[in-house]
Amino acid sequence: MRLAVFLEQYEKGGVDTHLLNLITGWEAAEDSFDIYCNREHKGLGLITEQSTGRACIVTYDSVAYDCVKRKLPKPLRFLLYPFFPFFFCLQYLQAKKLLRDKSYDVLLADNGGYPGGWGVLASIIAARNLRIKRRTLLVHHAADPPRRLWGGFERAVDHAVARACTDIVAVSKATRETLIRHRRIASREAAIQVIYNSVSLASNANTDSDINLRRAYGIDAEFLIGMVGRVEQYKGQEDLIKGFADVPPALRDKMAVVIIGGGADTEVERLRSLAATLGIIDRIHFTGFLNGDPKSLISQLDLLVVLTRDFEGFGLTLGEAMAVDVPVLATSVGAIPEFIDSNCGVLIPPASPMHVTAALAEFASEPAPWRERSNNARRVINSFSVEKMARQFRNVFTR
């Protein structure tokens, strides 16, 4: 079986990790993968390096509206907006040219949210017209409601995508629900299959897995609290900083916070300024992006915190923490409650520094129950293996 995977991403993230896990867990040696990835994607190097010997990487220069818009000065960007459908047509023609005459059995259109990468949606429609037998749309995050100005056009694309897909896969029930509620991409729940993400239990030999967080950042606190992921407002780093500041000083002095991940300089500086204003800058450490094995980094934490404010499709860092016996504190949003309950983690409402304060104080006072939950979590996450996920996808492609 010959498979094509079509990506349109710009930042490193969980979509990359999911794809690499899928290829790693693929057990049918006779099958082959071609990965089509836009050159502008910051995760392209990671995909190329870690898929060596398992997949062929085909790069292309994206003609997407968002890609072209980024190259223009901000005052001129609004001039492109009326031409959005034109750019989608260009993406369709580009995908059709890339996929033509390759004799693929399967196209996996690997998207973040929905509509997400419009080139990914265009590839599905192109694959149908090229008569590729299996055409699967994979959605990792929430579906957004159609925009007002282009709502009619977006609904037309939704209809074309639904007709072009032989299969639609969501990484969680919560993601599936947003596709049905916001986009009506399927008329009934059973039309969208859920295949949960996997968590690799093996360490990654291609990363600097020997990074020691405490030594590198001069941390001598009893408890190391960490967040791992891109620094963005919806990720809730601000809620952690505000909540940590209100922990009683006797308990706060036992803890230090490390925020691992890159982000816009303006957002990082805003958070640094907030920590300084609250008088806790000496206990908050921003590392930027670290090319370390995520599980190796997470295993050094005493508590992993995920405070996403609105929606989380699966929460890969949570799964990685569960795999290495690190307690987790997370917001009850999106798919997180689907695999974390009170027996294996602590869930709190989103955008609530007050609940963060209470949870951190409880952890610093009595960590034993949190560690007991992490032991339960390890047993839960063992069922999310890369091999199981890969088999489920192959079943979709071959049925």
The CATH architecture of the largest domain is 3-Layer(aba) Sandwich
Structural category is alpha/beta
What is the number of helical segments per DSSP (H or I, 4+ residues)?
17
CATH fold field value of the largest domain: Rossmann fold
**Low-confidence spans:** none
Element string (H = helix, E = strand): EHEHEHHEHEHEHEHEHHEHEHEHEHEHHH
N- and C-termini, Cα separation: 13 Å
What's the overall average pLDDT, rounded?
Answer: 92
The number of domains is 2
The whole-angstrom Rg is: 22 Å
Strand content: 15-25%
Number of DSSP strand runs: 13
Largest sheet: 7 strands, parallel
- Percent helix range: 40-55%
Q: Which sequence of strands runs across the widest sheet?
A: 3-2-1-4-5-6-7
Please explain how this structure is put together.
The protein has helices at 14-25, 44-50, 65-70, 84-99, 118-129, 151-164, 173-183, 213-216, 237-245, 249-252, 265-277, 294-298, 316-323, 336-339, 353-365, 368-381, 386-398; strands spanning 2-7, 32-38, 55-60, 106-111, 134-139, 167-170, 192-194, 223-228, 255-260, 284-288, 303-306, 328-331, 346-348. The chain has 2 domains: 2-198 and 385-398, 3-Layer(aba) Sandwich (Rossmann fold); 213-381, Glycogen Phosphorylase B (Rossmann fold), CATH 3.40.50. The longest helix has 16 residues, at 84-99. The strands form 2 sheets. It has a 7-stranded parallel sheet, with helices on both faces. The chain contains 17 helices and 13 strands. InterPro entries: Glyco_trans_1 (IPR001296), Glyco_trans_4-like_N (IPR028098). Residues 214-378 form the Glycosyl transferase family domain.
